[in-house]
Write a structure and sequence with these properties.
Layout: H1 8-22, H2 25-41, H3 51-72, H4 75-85, H5 89-98, H6 108-112, H7 114-124, H8 127-143, H9 155-176, H10 191-194, H11 203-207, H12 210-218, H13 222-237, H14 246-269, H15 285-298, H16 314-318, H17 320-327, H18 330-348, H19 363-381
Helix pairs in contact: 1-3, 1-9, 2-9, 3-8, 7-9, 9-18, 12-14, 13-18, 13-19, 14-18, 17-19
């Protein structure tokens, strides 16, 4: 029987179809995150990042990188694919409503034309370099090497892989499945958003997203997050400066991704905060935070002003939950998520920074994250019964 020979366009589309048949776009992105965390920490946190699955995805990504690079060189078929995958701004708005995933690693122009994202990837990194670094990922993760001193080869590739997957997925949805033009049915109003996130909450966390806000503050206090954000921002905006402990930066990135997701669910459901008693010490989270604050002030570790708002306006302090709800609508959340991914990549590499990026993703984002941290801290503590310490010569309020 004579074999059917595919032309380059058909081979490219077949490669996309095969890639997204093995795992959903969300599944691929989650796996890439877990794979990177395995390389950074040397430990597999997820059972599915076993050698078989890692090798399988490595081979799939290898083929996807190669196929995308080849189709960009094929002038005969590229123009047709570019035309069929391109959308105008109004069509993109309709697509965002129809698809169950939002490509938050792509800029707006790349969402309008995903082949622009593919061109950007290969303009920044040679295909042979991509394949070589992908192999380094594979080798280090199989050996479970701790790559703290080699984050410069991890972060850029991590961003390129995610951009590649999302761009290919848009082409897949527009050219192959036509889902971009099909009216969907969502059994759960939050499904569309949840599938765009790096963290899928358990049902009890979706039912009570404030529990995730409380968990956010179990790890450090307001001044602690203020310091972590400042250090991260400085790393992201400064050339020749990268994280000494990449896994710590990745952790703080995940903390804020989780907080933003919880805040969006709170906004979408228009929820109010009702404090619950903690099981271990019979106090509310707010009471516990204030008791820790008072203990540290008493011992000279902190001043009261350290745990007070610094950047929220007086009107925002008066109703911090209203500020959170106003800030965390879907459109603004997408921008925050994109900014977080840019910060992550910039802080991992000495060869990149936020210079040249829109100010909305640099200082404005830094200010917004500081405000959100302060606002949620006030939400958690404003109903607590602990009385603040009196102002003395060694403690003072802002």
């Amino acid at each position: 029987m004579k074999e059917t020979t595919l032309n380059p366009k058909e081979e490219f589309l077949a490669e996309l179809q095969d890639f997204f048949q093995t795992r959903s776009v969300k599944g691929h992105l989650l796996f890439v995150d877990d794979w990177m965390e395995l390389i950074l920490s040397g430990k597999a946190r997820k059972k599915w990042t076993n050698p078989t699955n890692i090798y399988f995805l490595h081979e799939k990504l290898n083929k996807l990188f190669t196929s995308c690079h080849q189709i960009l060189k094929d002038e005969e078929h590229l123009d047709e694919l570019v035309l069929n995958s391109k959308l105008d701004k109004n069509s993109l708005k309709n697509e965002n409503r129809k698809l169950i995933f939002a490509p938050y690693h792509l800029q707006k122009k790349e969402q309008l034309q995903p082949f622009e994202a593919l061109k950007t990837i290969f303009d920044k990194q040679d295909i042979n370099n991509c394949i070589l670094k992908l192999k380094e990922w594979l080798v280090n993760s199989l050996k479970q090497n701790y790559a703290i001193n080699h984050a410069d080869y991890i972060a850029p590739l991590h961003g390129h892989i995610k951009k590649l997957i999302e761009a290919c997925w848009l082409i897949h949805e527009r050219v192959i499945t036509k889902n971009s033009y099909t009216e969907p049915y969502y059994p759960e109003p939050l499904l569309k958003y949840a599938l765009t996130e790096p963290f899928l909450f358990f049902k009890e966390e979706v039912d009570d997203p404030f529990s995730m806000v409380e968990e956010f503050f179990e790890l450090t206090n307001l001044s602690g997050y203020r310091r972590e954000l400042q250090e991260w921002y400085f790393m992201a905006i400064t050339d020749e400066l990268s994280a000494k402990k990449p896994v710590d930066v990745y952790f703080i990135h995940n903390q804020y991704s989780s907080l933003i997701q919880a805040g969006f669910i709170i906004t979408a459901k228009n929820l109010n905060y009702t404090p619950n008693i903690r099981k271990n010490d019979e106090s509310t989270m707010g009471q516990w935070l204030l008791s820790v604050r008072d203990h540290q002030v008493k011992n000279g570790i902190l001043a009261l002003s350290d745990e007070a708002p610094h950047v929220l306006t007086m009107s925002e302090r008066a109703d911090p939950l209203a500020y959170c709800k106003q800030t965390l609508n879907l459109g603004k959340v997408r921008k925050l998520r994109f900014g977080l991914s840019e910060w992550l990549e910039a802080s991992f590499s000495k060869n990149s920074s936020l210079h040249g990026l829109d100010v909305a993703y640099a200082f404005e984002q830094y200010l917004t994250l500081q405000k959100l941290t302060e606002a949620f801290y006030l939400v958690i503590t404003e109903n607590a019964t602990n009385q603040p310490l009196p102002v003395t010569n060694t403690t003072h309020e802002a």
